[in-house]
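Researcher: I'm preparing a figure for a lab meeting and need a structural model of a single chain. I don't have an experimental structure, so a prediction will have to do for now. The sequence is pasted below. Please return the structure as tokens so I can convert it later.
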Amino acid sequence: MRRSNYSEQEIEELLRNLPSVTDTRPKADIYQNMQLAADKRRSPIRWIPIAACAAVIVLFSILAASFRMNLNSEHKVKVKDRNAVYQSNSEWDKKAGSTVKPENAGKKETEKETGSTPPAAEDKKQEEAPAPSDDKAETIEGKPGTEENKVLNAPLKSSLAFSKEGESHSYITISVPDPNLQYFIPLSFDTDKTDKQGQLEAVEEKMKSMNEESYGLSNYYPLNLGFSLGNEEGTVNVDFADKSSYNNSYESGLLNALEDTFRYLGYTKITFSTEGKPGIELSDTGAMQEAQLLPPKRSFLIYQSSPEHPKFIVPNVNSSAETIQDALKEMQNFEANNSAAASIPSDWKIETAAERDGVLVVTFSPGTLMAENENALLAIEAILLTAKDFGLKAVKFENAPLEKLGRYDLTKEIEVPSAPNVVE
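Model: Understood. Here is the structure written out token by token.
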């Protein structure tokens, strides 16, 4: 920029010499014009807040739509789950034969007779149709609302049979070895034959028809044997019609299987014959004429060949217990092997176990915990079977953590069972 040739004094003098100018406009007009000019300068930036507001509105709309979609999705899942529960509960009703609550039963009976539905009920039905409520699963008495509750609330099923259950039928017991011939599992079957000869015939028939492998056991039967009542009271005769059909592996477990089978049928002695002639010769025992069926005094374990097969209470063939107190310790301290496991939970604290007038009295220590589940039920039943094997007539539990477990009242004396492991 070119430098001016005037000094400051000269410039001031020139300005003083300029003609005077007078603005005749009022002050209000001047202020208004200045305000309009200022507004014009600010007007170009008014779109910024407007755009920001619009962006917020668009973002809110997107989020709201997404939230509604999630709610609808969750609602559909809930409706589907509820329908599934309702359908499963309906199937449970049909199987269990459940009955409708009295107040609902009267309404349904009225509707059935008139052939129509009241308007209020029709409106309510239409409102509830899209998604049955959670309460609907509880409209049947005693019915759990979910599949999990069904399992948790399912009654514990006993595996034992007792002599007091009736005289119109009885049970036959057949001892079946496991695939390794290490344990002999007594299986009991219901029969309508109550006389001794009829029961022996039922045993022969069941040995021919039973499917041992469906229980995870050895395919052991049928054997070419004949059973008949012996000449003495409490005696059964086993006749080997064709001994050449047996191999050593069958012979090694045969005596154990026969003894357990007939002991549970109430016999005290077995006599043997071969094709009608007295006596038999087995590879592990040699020549035999008879076998006494005394109380074996054994502990009992839990046997399960695989998770797909049921659990059974089985005698411990290797038991070394001389007293029932020793047997209970074996049942609690047994180390699991070959599908067999301890029958008494390790956290059960048994203070004493004593015999009183033919009754086993088991006293629990204070603070002992007992879960209301299948393992606890099997433990109680294993103790009952052990007492039977020691020749006792009943078991009394004192200071038990539960008053009732399954079918058993733990506050009262419980008789020993007549048959173990009842199966179809």
